[in-house]
Amino acid sequence: MVQDVMEREGPRSKRAGILAAAIDSFGQDGYEHTKWAKIADEVGIGQTALYHYFESKAHCLLTIMSLELARSLQRFREVTADVPQADAALRAAIAAAYDVSPREVLQMRILQNHMDLLATPRASEREEVERQQARKHVREIEDEWTALVERGMASGAFPERDARALATVVLAMVVSVWRWYRPGGRLSLDDVRELIADAAVRVVGP
Amino acid sequence: MVQDVMEREGPRSKRAGILAAAIDSFGQDGYEHTKWAKIADEVGIGQTALYHYFESKAHCLLTIMSLELARSLQRFREVTADVPQADAALRAAIAAAYDVSPREVLQMRILQNHMDLLATPRASEREEVERQQARKHVREIEDEWTALVERGMASGAFPERDARALATVVLAMVVSVWRWYRPGGRLSLDDVRELIADAAVRVVGP
DNA sequence: CATCGAATTGAACTAAATTCAGGTCAGGAA
DNA sequence: TTCCTGACCTGAATTTAGTTCAATTCGATG
């Protein structure tokens, strides 16, 4: 669900609705291609009302990205927390990565397509805050994958090599899927899970 | 070099200069962040003159992407043509992928960051032509990698599995590097070549 | 009831890409 | 040489979308 962020929202807040509409449009039609005013229409408010919730269209995009990163990170931690064997944890993390709702698929797509936005500072205050937040999540996710690989090396499950580099490669494999995956396409999410899990085990294993 | 495209260019054409300036700015500062007029300044012409060479800023971007895809494809074919063993061809293709000039690094970055542009049709004529061109190159590159993997399976060098899926994974690994690689960063291009070549051999091998 | 802040609005503003309506310039034909 | 043509270029005007502004409505709370 999109709700339950830290900040308490008033009962007649349209924030969640805006995010949902934005995710659908940004994900389906692309960020630059969607007119900000169209989101307002879909939610049933005037364009100006959007600025009560987000400082800008870009701020909304960054929020969507940050939310999805936070969710992914949390999910990773949940499913790997109580799995001591690194190879099992690796498979669990990958399974979790593809255990997503249709809307989360769109969010991952948006995330992949606009990751470059996180590289350069934003002029406006709240955008920059959200960007930093997102960057932090990215770093934490990379750290989690690295720690997982290191754990496997320490336990002897994986041969000793550059853990961070390997983690980067594995993570890239996992997320690159969202660039081409389409529901109803040649491969199902289950197919993808199997494909990537096997590949990851091979990359990191003996 | 950026020149030697099919179309003969007049001697005082600034097209190559525009492309070079655009690659630098789009690659360094990002496409949306660079002002089209700034490119004109850098080349030493008025903003309107840009439209003599490109129908739009997006058309220029699509041209850059298409050019880089064409170059990559050609290079792949060159280095794998006379290598019969699939595993050697795989390593050659990966080596070639990272044997690039600084400007080509930027072009690959631009390509990765805007691949999603190829998914949806363009309203304007020449943009759409360039998009189709780029999509064709993408398809051909995917076909080349797939054929390479299939060749390996047929020869027994790689175990039989879903060749297209595996090729997609390998190609994704190869190109995902451009999202994070920076000259002077933790890993050199030689490091990257080794890292990805090893990973690819593991993914596709026994 | 009074009030406060969240939520909303129409009208005006702005930045940047693009179009328009015409110039200039170099090189080949007459 | 002069003329002509098409490549190349320009300043001014237009367009489009995102954004700001000043002012208003609504609902809960004291």
From TrEMBL, chains A, B:
Keywords: DNA-binding, Transcription, Transcription regulation. InterPro entries: Homeodomain-like_sf, HTH-type_TetR-like_transc_reg, HTH_TetR, KstR2_TetR_C, Tet_transcr_reg_TetR-rel_C_sf. Residues 12-72 form the HTH tetR-type domain. Gene3D superfamilies: Homeodomain-like, Tetracycline Repressor, domain 2. Pfam families: TetR_C_24, TetR_N. Residues 35-54 bind DNA. This is TetR family transcriptional regulator.
